[in-house]
Amino acid sequence: MGIQPRAGILDIRPYKPGSSEAPGVENPVKLSSNENALGCSPKAAAAFEAASTRLHLYPDGGATKLREAIAREEGVDADNIVCGCGSDELLQLLGRAYLNPGDKVVQSQYGFLVYRLVAMQCGAELVCAPERNYTTDVDAVIGAAGDDARIVFIANPNNPTGTYIPDAEIRRLRDALPDTTLLVIDAAYAEFVSNADYNAGMDLARERDDVVVTRTFSKIHGLAGARLGWAYGDKSIIDVLHRVRGPFNVNLPAIEAGAAAIADRSFMKKSADHNAEWVAWLRQQIGGLGLEVTPSVCNFVLIHFPDTPGKRAADADAFLTSKGLIVRGVEPYGLPNALRATVGKADDNRRLAEALGEFVNA
Known about the structure:
It is globular, with a radius of gyration of 20 Å. It has twelve helices and 13 strands. It has helices spanning 42-50, 64-74, 86-98, 113-121, 138-145, 167-176, 202-207, 235-244, 252-263, 265-287, 313-322, 346-361; strands at 29-30, 81-84, 104-108, 125-129, 149-155, 182-186, 211-216, 229-233, 292-294, 300-304, 325-326, 328-330, 335-342. Strand 9 and strand 10 form a beta hairpin. It is of the alpha/beta class. Helix content is 38%, strand content 17%. It folds into two domains: 22-39 and 266-361, Aspartate Aminotransferase, domain 1; 42-263, Aspartate Aminotransferase, domain 2 (3-Layer(aba) Sandwich), CATH 3.40.640.10.
């Protein structure tokens, strides 16, 4: 083969989304991708549909309407916001803008897989800091970063563990990092967290020019199919991201749906309340079966299985699939004996707990 990609590209294992099929089962329940069990805001759906009459037009390249809507709801300056095709794109743009081949990138042990992809795409070196109890260990991250890390990615809360670290720990981390290190706080699940000691990082990003926060419309807003995210940071960072993004990287219906969604606080509260009720219920029910469940503030639970023949995570995954319940294996994260299950509708959650009971007691 004569044409070869840049060195290291073929070493990348493409990101694999959660499955949506259960062979032989009609209408399976998908609990594999952390989608909003309640769908999206009716106001967002109506705005998306209304935009369909203008599909022949290019969208506003700056997503001005969406940025201004976000700014109103978050109490920030719209000029400090850039929007993207999901927060995944923004994470990749940060890598493209700030990473050179050989640079060091640091993440926690079980951090989101996209950080690894960003590092590999840019030819950077990825270093994983050990976690403690499936939670980011700030001291380990500081040690791994040293004085030469170019970017530190922290998912707070984290996927796939569902754990978080308090605002005080995020600030301690930032204070310990060199000024030449960019701290990227991925707060995709921020809206689900009600704990008083948590902060999405917006205040820190407002105070400093070496912090950027990424957010998404895929989770609490239920717009995963629209592919919409945003980042907030110092204008110097936002200016750089505008320079490397595509000129029309957010489509017109997504802009309209996003602006409607972020203003629908009632739907957001309904989604958060549903999640709080059922994530606690799932943890209690599944824990009662003798399975370890990592405490989660997100819209999913991480379930650990014994290293016993016939009772391992892969066995449970196959059993649940046969029952039409699709969850997510997390072996690529270094968790071969765990499964991640999204909080679904009430009946779906009950089916999941019942099926796991059958599996454990078989």
